[in-house]
Specification:
The protein is an alpha/beta fold. The protein has seven helices and 14 strands. About 45% of the residues are buried.
Length: about 260
């Protein structure tokens, strides 16, 4: 086994142990998708999940990427790749399966799009939506070999395509968007980070049930704000309400009114 292969195997083993991953397909995808294929050539600006500042990797050896670290996409905007353990945990919680149709809102450079591609397999589909044109172009190039992935440059609050089994939002919003809920198939699952202006908040899993939806808080999160996320104190209060209500018990609702649950 090469040094890189050994490092990648240890990376997957640590994530599996830390997050108690139950999906063999997810672990296999993490083991086979090269993280370095979805980044510019190194050295890279990286930081651990608790770090406040970046450090520069010693060189361009990909072994530096196979740790539970964030890698800067745009350090000036504090825009990073997703933390591997966190998004592996979310994908596992969403129970993404072979043949599923998955929609990503904010795919970044496409690393997790490739991981999802491997999980859903050739009979599944991944629609990777990215509002930043440059990122979308780069992601499309990196994902060219993944035939079941379509990269779409656009606003994920305006169009997500056909009905989906899973919708994953990779940016912070004040509340779930009605379009994401409407796009879910029966028993479909949505993962959405609901955050305040300081980027802090909680990721919610929302499942489509027979008579509406059920929301539950999954984990605290700090994440880059989504385009269109409100910037007023009212938006912050809406996000805070969702976090508190869903943390106490599963929250059931049928529709949204001004971003909040309604039963009518």
């Amino acid at each position: 086994m090469s040094d890189l292969a050994a490092v990648r195997a240890r990376y997957v083993e640590r994530i599996a142990r830390r997050e108690r991953i139950s999906s063999p397909r997810l672990l296999e995808a993490l083991a086979t998708v090269p993280r370095e294929d979805f980044l510019a050539r190194g050295p890279w600006r990286i930081k651990g999940e608790a770090a406040r500042s970046y450090r520069l990797s010693p060189d361009a050896d990909p072994v530096h990427l196979y740790d539970n670290v964030l890698v800067a996409i745009d350090a000036r905007r504090r825009l990073d790749t997703g933390l591997p353990s966190l998004w592996a945990h979310f994908i596992d919680v969403l129970d993404v399966k072979e043949k599923d149709r998955v929609v990503q809102i904010g795919c970044g450079l496409g690393y997790f799009s490739a991981v999802l591609s491997k999980i859903v397999g050739p009979k599944g589909r991944v629609t990777a939506v990215e509002c930043d044109e440059r990122l979308a172009e780069r992601a499309a190039g990196y994902l060219r070999a993944y035939r079941n992935v379509e990269v779409v440059h656009g606003d994920g609050c305006e169009k997500v395509g056909d009905a989906a089994d899973v919708v994953i939002v990779h940016a912070g919003f004040a509340h779930p968007h009605p379009l994401w809920l409407q796009s879910l198939r029966p028993r479909g699952r949505l993962l959405v980070p609901l955050t305040q202006r300081d980027r802090e908040g909680a990721a919610l899993k929302i499942t489509r049930r027979d008579r509406g939806f059920e929301a539950e808080a999954v984990q605290q999160i700090r994440i880059f704000p989504g385009r269109g996320r409100g910037v007023t104190a009212l938006d912050d209060r809406v996000a805070d309400w969702w976090q508190r209500a869903s943390a106490l018990a599963p929250l059931r609702f049928r529709r949204l009114e001004q971003g909040l649950p309604a039963d009518g």
